[in-house]
Amino acid sequence: MNLLRSSVTLFAFVLLAAPGVSAADRAQALPRSAPEKQGVSSAALLGFIEEAESKINALHSVMIVRHGHVIAEGWWAPYAAEEPHQMFSLSKSFTSTAVGLAIAEGKLQVEDEVLKFFPEEAPAKPSANLKAMRLRDLLTMAAGHHAEDLQGFSLTTDESVVKRFLALPVAHKPGTFFAYSTVATYLQSAMVQKVTGQSVLAYLRPRLFEPLGIENPAWEQSKQGVSQGGTGLSIRTEDIAKFGQLYLQKGKWNGKQLVPASWVETATARWMSNGSNPASDWEQGYGFQFWRCRYGVIRGDGAHGQFCIVMPELDAVVAITAGTKDLQGVLNVVWAKLLPALQAKTSGALAADAGAEGMLRARLAGLALKAPVALVGERSPIAANVAGKRFVFPQNPQAMESIRLSPAADDPKATEFFATMGGVEQRVTVAGGRWVKGELKGGPAAGPVAVSGAWTAADTFTLDVVRYRTPFVARYHLKFSGDGETVRLETVMNVGPTPPPLVGRRE
């Protein structure tokens, strides 16, 4: 994904209505409970939410499950319960599950040599280390590569991803050297597809997704038609929680063994050392596409803060989606605030606390990303000077050609924003303090978005764009010169690279 390009591609906009939750979804949802009934204080959970907003301020959703019951759940608007979210590397844990199921069906073995599945794509003279590479080594991120040889490896090129992977130098004996590798998980996906005749997505649908009530999972594919494996899965927050609960229950769901208990234990065990920093949850050991954490916790996780946290000793699961650069910070808040709440009483119920529970529910229901806030009082004095004027940008990597602003005819507090990209002018009406959902039509960022915008200073119009099925949130500051002849477009990304400012001139 070209994050820079996708983040600055704006605004083909259509008003959307939020879909409701289907009866089938409700029937297959996890049961809900008051926190105190599951031995957890509502006040303590409220403290976690407050700490997360104070320390991180980048969560998109959270769901906390105790004794199989959801005791707290919330989405920061415009993110919503019914919307899927990109999982990034949390996808790896699902691919591992597909491998485990294929092994249980006798189609794979952990000691299988990788080359035997792809003889036609192997180098003419494979190295001894490549010949020795096993499925186990892919699962444990110990295929033998240097990390630098894996950087920049694309899963979306026309050339066979498998062939390119097998052509990489294998510097270390497989099984001896940890190097995190998304493409190694892709190889697992390709192996599953080779032996089953189905993509990992199709293979898991009747075996995992449908029994768990995970509807409409989506998984990006390579150009060779293989589920990306190590990334690319999109599911909802509750789907993450269900997956974590399945592993907490040793693979059993509604009385049926969906995943062999032996695989759950094997996949979540510590197989590889990946560091020695006692304060880092990325250096506590690695399993079969699962991370080991402090406090006896296991997890799957993905870039920018997608977490499935399983706490076997506390009979709890925490599902989180986010858009942050500080993944360790998210876990630190979980350890600081949730662990004590869950450890306070590991079994039995607490006395009901209607007041605290009500405060928690109200806080969870009112969660929202902070939208631009309009100037207090009258509209910016420069707004009239630039209203309806077109500002043109020189050629740039963001492909931004021009912008213009105009007061909305039917709402004095709203502004119509126009942007021209690729010769097409696109329009959205925005107002400060509220989110309006719409759809991008075309380009790498095509898909649902939510926007909010306002004059936040005398010379500055601020526009926020949230791609609410992804972690990506972009803030655009349009800073006009005093005479209204130029505009400086500054982009602030929540994650990923920040593009350089652009200067446009009034026609």
Secondary-structure topology with pairs:
Elements: H1 3-8, H2 23-27, H3 42-55, E1 59-66, E2 69-75, E3 85-86, H4 91-104, H5 128-132, H6 135-139, H7 147-150, H8 161-166, H9 182-196, H10 200-212, E4 218-219, E5 233-235, H11 237-248, E6 252-253, E7 256-257, H12 261-267, E8 291-292, E9 298-302, E10 306-311, E11 316-322, H13 327-343, H14 354-365, H15 381-386, E12 391-392, E13 402-407, E14 414-421, E15 424-431, E16 436-440, E17 447-457, E18 460-466, E19 473-480, E20 486-493, E21 502-506
Antiparallel strand pairs: 1-2, 1-11, 3-5, 4-5, 6-7, 8-9, 9-10, 10-11, 12-13, 12-21, 13-14, 14-15, 16-17, 17-18, 18-19, 19-20, 20-21
In words, what does this structure look like?
- With 507 residues, the protein is α+β, with helices and mostly antiparallel strands.
- It folds into three domains: 35-83 and 237-351, DD-peptidase/beta-lactamase superfamily (Beta-lactamase); 109-178, no CATH class; 381-506, Beta Barrel (Lipocalin), CATH 2.40.128.20.
- Helices cover 28% and strands 22% of the residues.
- The chain is built from 15 helices and 21 strands.
- It has a ten-stranded antiparallel sheet. A six-stranded antiparallel sheet has the order 2-1-11-10-9-8, with helices on both faces. Strands 3-5-4 form a three-stranded antiparallel sheet.
- α3 runs parallel beside α14 (354-365) and α4 (91-104) packs parallel to α9 (182-196).
- The chain is globular and about 70 Å long.
